[in-house]
Amino acid sequence: MRTVYLNGQFVPESEAKLSIFDEGSMYGSTVFEMLRSYNQQHWKMDEHLDRLYWGLKVLRIPEPMPKQDMADLCNEVTLKNCGEFQSDDEFRLMINVSRGPLGIYRDACPQKGPTLCVSCFPLKWTVAGMGALYDEGLNAVVVNQRHTDCLPNVKHRSRMPFILANQQAAQMAGLRNWALLLDQEGFVAEGTGANVFMVLNDQLYTPDPNHCLKGISRDHVLGLAQELDLYADVGRYNYYELIHSDEAFFTGTPFGALPITSIDGIPLGDGQPGSIYKKIMAAWDKEVRVNHREQIQDWDAQRHEPVGSSPYVSKN
Amino acid sequence: MRTVYLNGQFVPESEAKLSIFDEGSMYGSTVFEMLRSYNQQHWKMDEHLDRLYWGLKVLRIPEPMPKQDMADLCNEVTLKNCGEFQSDDEFRLMINVSRGPLGIYRDACPQKGPTLCVSCFPLKWTVAGMGALYDEGLNAVVVNQRHTDCLPNVKHRSRMPFILANQQAAQMAGLRNWALLLDQEGFVAEGTGANVFMVLNDQLYTPDPNHCLKGISRDHVLGLAQELDLYADVGRYNYYELIHSDEAFFTGTPFGALPITSIDGIPLGDGQPGSIYKKIMAAWDKEVRVNHREQIQDWDAQRHEPVGSSPYVSKN
Amino acid sequence: MRTVYLNGQFVPESEAKLSIFDEGSMYGSTVFEMLRSYNQQHWKMDEHLDRLYWGLKVLRIPEPMPKQDMADLCNEVTLKNCGEFQSDDEFRLMINVSRGPLGIYRDACPQKGPTLCVSCFPLKWTVAGMGALYDEGLNAVVVNQRHTDCLPNVKHRSRMPFILANQQAAQMAGLRNWALLLDQEGFVAEGTGANVFMVLNDQLYTPDPNHCLKGISRDHVLGLAQELDLYADVGRYNYYELIHSDEAFFTGTPFGALPITSIDGIPLGDGQPGSIYKKIMAAWDKEVRVNHREQIQDWDAQRHEPVGSSPYVSKN
Amino acid sequence: MRTVYLNGQFVPESEAKLSIFDEGSMYGSTVFEMLRSYNQQHWKMDEHLDRLYWGLKVLRIPEPMPKQDMADLCNEVTLKNCGEFQSDDEFRLMINVSRGPLGIYRDACPQKGPTLCVSCFPLKWTVAGMGALYDEGLNAVVVNQRHTDCLPNVKHRSRMPFILANQQAAQMAGLRNWALLLDQEGFVAEGTGANVFMVLNDQLYTPDPNHCLKGISRDHVLGLAQELDLYADVGRYNYYELIHSDEAFFTGTPFGALPITSIDGIPLGDGQPGSIYKKIMAAWDKEVRVNHREQIQDWDAQRHEPVGSSPYVSKN
Amino acid sequence: MRTVYLNGQFVPESEAKLSIFDEGSMYGSTVFEMLRSYNQQHWKMDEHLDRLYWGLKVLRIPEPMPKQDMADLCNEVTLKNCGEFQSDDEFRLMINVSRGPLGIYRDACPQKGPTLCVSCFPLKWTVAGMGALYDEGLNAVVVNQRHTDCLPNVKHRSRMPFILANQQAAQMAGLRNWALLLDQEGFVAEGTGANVFMVLNDQLYTPDPNHCLKGISRDHVLGLAQELDLYADVGRYNYYELIHSDEAFFTGTPFGALPITSIDGIPLGDGQPGSIYKKIMAAWDKEVRVNHREQIQDWDAQRHEPVGSSPYVSKN
Amino acid sequence: MRTVYLNGQFVPESEAKLSIFDEGSMYGSTVFEMLRSYNQQHWKMDEHLDRLYWGLKVLRIPEPMPKQDMADLCNEVTLKNCGEFQSDDEFRLMINVSRGPLGIYRDACPQKGPTLCVSCFPLKWTVAGMGALYDEGLNAVVVNQRHTDCLPNVKHRSRMPFILANQQAAQMAGLRNWALLLDQEGFVAEGTGANVFMVLNDQLYTPDPNHCLKGISRDHVLGLAQELDLYADVGRYNYYELIHSDEAFFTGTPFGALPITSIDGIPLGDGQPGSIYKKIMAAWDKEVRVNHREQIQDWDAQRHEPVGSSPYVSKN
Known about the structure:
Six copies of one chain form a homohexamer. In chain A, 30% of the residues lie in helices and 26% in strands. Chain A is an alpha+beta fold and 316 residues long. In chain A, the strands form two sheets. In chain A, strands 8, 9, 10, 11, 12, 13, 14, 15 and 16 form a nine-stranded mixed β-sheet that branches. A six-stranded antiparallel β-sheet of chain A has the order 2-1-7-6-4-5. In chain A, strand 11 (195-200) and strand 12 form a beta hairpin. The longest helix of chain A is centred in the N-terminal third of the chain and has 15 residues, at 67-81. The interface between A and B is large, with 60 and 60 residues. Strand 3 (17-19) of chain A pairs antiparallel with strand 3 (17-19) of chain B, so a sheet runs across the interface.
């Protein structure tokens, strides 16, 4: 049975809960990170923790422990749970930090100081059903809900625009539809838990981080592009430039990158995953010694129930 | 010991918790209401439940039970807890509804259907230390953080702009500072859990609900104004019109209305609670047979610890 | 064979064409009106011609003839064609006026002065397949394409946002989907050739004409509301207020009003055409002595081919 | 007599017309291109056709024929007409593609599939009277009408903002006034059928294509700049940076580039065509083996009638 | 010789000067009012002083004296100078208040406390040449410079947008051109020292004071409208509604109201001063027992030099 | 006694005044520059005069003399006054140019042509009390007042947003608070007379000049960065990127650069002046052969009175 670190204790996963009097529950003000492993080794833990601690600073949440101790704790949580994983599993580590119960509720919830929760569960949950998408590609649904986040660079839990966007995308038939949000002036921003890249004439284009999260997979793709001698431009792009792309793809920690083969039903290029996308994924697979596509397709082949009983999948 | 309704069961208040895998925890997508009693009778329960159920509809969260059953449940929760209250207490009822655990986490959290939590605790927690404000008035701090909520009319838990606004206001010395947010075009929007009214030449002015919550206390004040033959205008007002007011006040369910006697340190009128404010509160007190000011000042007189150990008070 | 007035001549309908060198073809700068008859009597011709002539003035297009002569011409065109209509037909009159060929193309197209074209064809073309919608209601698809018209109050032919909106709506399955556009700040604007009304607590709400056409059917509904003692508010409403409505409907000259029974798939009220809608249509039917619903359903019953071979229906 | 290709047939130029029932007439949704020749050889036909076919894709208009066949057709149209041109003439080729008649009008206009029209006429029509501007320069009139195009990167016929802008500029005395539009946030966007460049300290500056057409002449100037070792910046520039320029010029296919020597009457630099402008034009002239200025001045010298009988000249 | 009150002293008009070290000179932060007399009696002095004192409060400038003393001072200044006026003159009173010299310049300019200057000169200076406009009407030039004032309701001296607007309008030929500014979203705001009214179907329309000064003459017209049973709407109107008006006029203290007979050269109505305008001016004339038009035309008839040697006339 | 050049004459500093009828007093339309010396040699006079003359051109103010004569005049003013300075003083030269008295006031103020005023006073006035800030650093207060200047690139006197921003910042306790303004879309713009730089990972970031003054010290820092092989990015940065910086600093001619060690009370990095800041100041000190910090701390040590009797310090 998996166990979760919660405010100094280890509790069963089913007991990993947050008080209704916690500021995180009350205001959606939890800062969080979600990591994955490759070959059961955590990937880019430093980058994730750096972003987490910056978010704490912006929100003036006291650090629950020094950053290095947090890394140790993450490893401890993983170690405690690794017996619960199958040999072909990968880890999905989730860290939530909130300011703790609001002072006015001290009688109901006497905890002092911030709330910290670290859990570790199989990555295959998050990516269930995504295996086919590496071959078929996604249809990006550009929803009318704009990206109105007041703090787009911090990974936090006030994610209402994402829920609304996902609901709009879920109106389309099929399981290949992922929402894509425009920013408030109508430029391409990001998916709901995924950054977006466009490719035109073998060059990469991705929105600047004024209106989207500076995703760690996004940064990784920018690094791979450099290694592969692909020029990458960071800026603002409109909806019709997006349609104009030869290729496009979403990036996100759990899946690496997934091809977008149409936008609102208009095929990009020949409607197939593009060659630049494939080149980047090949380099990524090689670097982490995991074939993303095969790994997820294998997991999908093992599943018995259908995916998508809830239409609102968490993608990161 | 107070008890809380949580998904079909009654649990101790300290066990009133939400799974970290619940969409409410993950996305700040919980819809909620907070009621108060007068003389231990719930006030405007229908209005609160109507707004709750509309929020569920907008967010496409299945109704956990028919609205009438919810009213019955609220009363049941209150009844079960009323022995824990002192005779001069009032009830604060909190209803949270979220869509429930995300489908991908069914192994960790097998609950199906929405999450419903109804709790009831003393109102005096929420209003601790506010007693003096009826006499001294508040200083409204107009923060640089704009009101960016994509769903201002639904009472939901993605309240990041409010936390950031509260933090900015807390930079000012003293306990009389409450944050006031402008909307994205720079017009007065609302406080962090409180609507705002201005008074000029004996007329009331309050922002239209395109950029603020349609608060139930706000609606009540509009009704009182009508009874008192006070003209009330609903529109958009800028920062300098706010300063131009003779009086201003915040409204919110727990405290009714509190006078704003200065804006960013500039006194309104003579710097004292205004006569229209007093006229409205007098009518309100009479109608509910509770003197807001005295009730809270009595509670404050009984408290032993200082208020404000956490600067981020939840105001509704 | 129907005949069309074109610059002083009558030509067969199939010859009703505009030079590629005309400013109207080149710039989408044609001003137009489309009328309908009830019992073969033109409806509100003065209002339509007033709007047409105002558009000419705004665009500084010389008037091709005095307004009264234009009315006479419209009647003449109708008279010349009325033998081509069946006894249960209604007339659809279309007037297009553009500035004429650009001066630089005088060698290719020597015409001087404005281009005027008046044609008259069966209304049933425009409303084909709409009969069922009076009973089933429409699903309004709120598209991501915003309403960017620089001249929303003039009925002109630079209607690119409408085409893009229609294409987005056409991605949804079924024939009941009509596009609804938000304005550039995210408030409800209008359909693509149809105004929108919301109903809440028996009051009507419709966007102010700063961001939509001041439709003649819209004005008519406002007039009927007054007669029926229904309060009507003209203002700005957001997406979530739209969802919050008890009822909603589109208005447009060819069909009068059609009920919107869901928004992006979220049912309004009980998902049926609403009672206020029905009351308005009953008054309208009575006034014009035509039952809109029955008339169009009769026409639909006579048709042999399926509707919708082109997804981009012109609605006005 | 010149002949025009129209939907599979060749018709006289005066018969080159579009049905009033065509979506292009109805919605301004025609996609178009206009080419020119140098020494009677078409220039950059591939670039023009690429842009045309991209526009068709964005608007989901079926391709009327493969791109290579379109190139062949363009040449065929030119060949058929070249006998009508004088030896010192250049060709102006115009391609219009629209979706064709709306489905509801099939009885009036039975054509199926898209409408394609290719015509070829003397370039000197378009540039009549521009010869003097190479020496005198233009006065750019920055109009109050903002550039509100929802699809600025597609060359389409919903060009209302351009007509309104031209009308405002035409209020100024003289024939040297060309309109220049700001985008919706007040930055310099483009002329009405012409891109704009600024020069400061021997560096070029031109608006990014988020708010203007990515003109083919604009791209050509960026290429020439590279060859001439001139740094070119693509970004957003405000009105007062424009005035601050040492030089400025408009680019457009028919005329190459024309100097702007004043903005709203404020002279740029010494009020004469600038040296960078001249350097670029010299390189361009050399490359295409045509002296733009002399060619157009020669044509102007041959004309008998005055230019400008219509103030609204089509510039591309 | 006229004399001016300046910080406790009376100085000759030519010595009425502000130190270059005064915050008013340094930051354009002077608050001011300009009054006029009718039959040598000051008009609406209370309203002007109320606005002045409100501006001082917004800018946190200490009051130089109680409001009643200021009224007395204004009368004293008038009395001291009235011998310098002709019998048919009216007074123009100007009050400037600034915070005084910046503290860092105390060595150069040792004055402490605010700077107050009250002067009184002939109104005919301000309205020179306006007589003919009552008959001919103005052409409102809608400039591209938007109204960007951060404090539109306070009459202050940071009036850069007005200077830029006046300069753009001055590009047009003739003396009948007055600038009209749009607000930042493109709606009609105000002239440069004048409010604007539109008339359509005998109803008045004027921009709401969120984006323009709440002019005292504007308020007066709203009052006259009420007396004359004319409905007046206060809201936001776009450029094309302005053109759509039957009539329009500017209001300002020195001239009352002046008719706008064209907008960017497009005539309103029949291009003559409108009947509602005339009705309002007749009521105004009667109330103040001065015929505005005749008074100014008389003064113009007496002038020897031409008007307009500086194109940048101050209108209030 | 210091003397000031004013319109062709030298007058005592206390007589350096501007007529209340001057357009500069009336409209805040004065263009100005403020220089400083290092070792009593003026710094970057050419750059300052270039910006001044460009401002005159934009505002269409006639040049009062050729630019070279202006340089000579500046030197003459300095020379005439240098006997009044102590040996350790530096010069602060101020140039104001306005269009002169408005034409309508010619009777009161017969001056023709522009108003020019050049004065020279001790730099220590401007920087009084800043010495400690080199060690302690500033707290940047991000005010709610946005930067609404219509002409951000011209140094002019319509500086109302700066006064309002300073007043908001002055609400905070202590003397270390300087206001920082966001632009109208919420990105970091500039201080009130100071540009802002951020440092992250040893790279510099500073807002692009579309929304701030192109400060001469800002340009100098960009040049120093190049010499020091520091990469500098010019773009748009949001509030939370600002907080994310390792370091930040303001630049301004009188003080060079001053470290920002906290933003709204949140410490940057370790809350101390940063190493990149120090590296830049070291290079600057060396280049100008003046230690900024020591020079100002020396002056502060000599002062007898406390600083800050007026909270609104002019910083440039």
